[in-house]
Structure formats: C-alpha cells, structure tokens
Amino acid sequence: MQAFFILLGALIVLVLGLFIFSLFLPPVVKVERSLVIAAPADRIFPLINVVRNWELWSPWKELDPDISITYGEKDSGAGASYSWKSHNRNIGTGHMTITESRPDQYIATDTDFMRMGIAKGTFRLDPVGEGTLVSWSMTCNMGQHPLRKVMGLMMDKWVGQDFEKGLEGIKRLVVRN
Fold first, then answer.
1. How far is 158 from 162, CA to CA, in rounded Å?
2. Per DSSP, what are the bridge partners of residue 68?
3. Per-residue pLDDT averaged across 159-166, rounded?
4. Has UniProt tagged this entry with the keyword Transmembrane helix (predicted)?
5. Which of 49-63, 123-137, 148-162 has the highest mean pLDDT?
6. DSSP H/E element including 81
7. Mean pLDDT of all residues in the chain?
8. How many alpha carbons fall within 13 Å on the CB side of residue 105?
C-alpha cells in the first residue's frame, strides 16, 4: 500500500510540474523555413498560388499517396481552397484556404486542422542576387492547455522538416523546368 501512495505522490508532482512549466511557455508557436531558389518569383509563385499544384510538391502527399483531396470552386488566389482526408495520423483531416495573394510576392493561408485549430500560414517570395528567397511560415495559437503548450515545443522540429521538404520540392520543380 505504501508503494501505491509513493506512485500516486510522484504522479501528482509530475502533473503539477508539467502545469507549472506550461505557465512559462508562450501560447503562440511560429515555424518558418526559407530556401533560395535559382529562379525568378514569377516561375515559383504559380506552384503555391494554384492549389492544385500543391500535390506536385507537398511533403504530405509523399507521406500518404492515397490521401483524398477535394478542391474548392476557385483554383488560385484569394479564396482558392482544398480539403484533405488521410488515414495517416500524422496528416489527418483538414482544410486550407488562401486568404491573400499578391502576385510574385506573398500568399497567406488559413489551415484548419479540425480539432487542433486554425494555423495562419504565409509564403514570402523575396528577390535575392541568386534568384528568389522563398520563406514558408506557420503560426499556431496552442491556447492555454498545458499539454498543447508543451506540444508546441516540438512543432518546429515536426513541421519544420515538412516545410524543408516542401521547399525542396518546389525547387526541384522550378529547376527542372
């Protein structure tokens, strides 16, 4: 019986420690990756602005080739969207909409991850000497839930690798053509 109380005490200390630790974590998490692509922005922009082109470079399509994708009525620019369903738990179900589109410069998105909430995404295309610096970012509000805030600590590692693969996919498509 004494061992039970020791384990119970340890569990309580662990839960309290997690809660106190989470109080010091920010609720908003930002992930960003950038890559210089040796091409002008007008060759890169359509790969991001036209939602049907995402299948060509999306890191998540590679994770689940059987992912089900449904496109909205509009193909490109503000208002263009698509939804996805995957049996892969790392991809899940969601919906992405382009909320702002400035030709050859900037695209903003809202991505609804259903139970996980909405993430704000951006793609910036900045001219540099060797071509275009493409920056892909995502900002998520993890809320005040202690476990979600702790999970936010891992977002950069998890999502950042996907962003790097996606940017490399865009680069392969642009350089190949």
1. 7
2. 85
3. 92
4. yes
5. 123-137
6. strand 81-85
7. 87
8. 4
Strand-pair category, 131-141 with 68-71: unpaired
Residue 169: predicted pLDDT: 95
Residue 132 φ then ψ, to 5°: -135, 130
Tokens of 4: 């039970």
Q: Letter for the amino acid at 130? A: E
For 16-41, write each residue's pLDDT tens digit: 776 766 567 667 789 999 999 999 99
pLDDT tens digits, one per residue of 87-135:
887 788 889 999 999 999 999 999 987 666 789 999 999 999 989 999 9
The single-letter code of the amino acid at 139 is T
Under a CB-based contact definition with an 8 Å cutoff, are residues 79 and 97 in contact? yes
Query: Are 42 and 104 within 8 A, CB to CB?
Result: yes
Residue 34, judged by CB atoms within 10 A of its CB (0-12, 13-18, 19+), counts as middle
The Cα-based distances of 137 to 48, 87, 157, 177 in angstroms read 13, 25, 13, 25
Helices 2-23 and 146-176 cross at an angle (nearest 10°) of: 60
Q: Which of 16, 26, 12, 59 is nearest to 151 (CA)?
A: 26
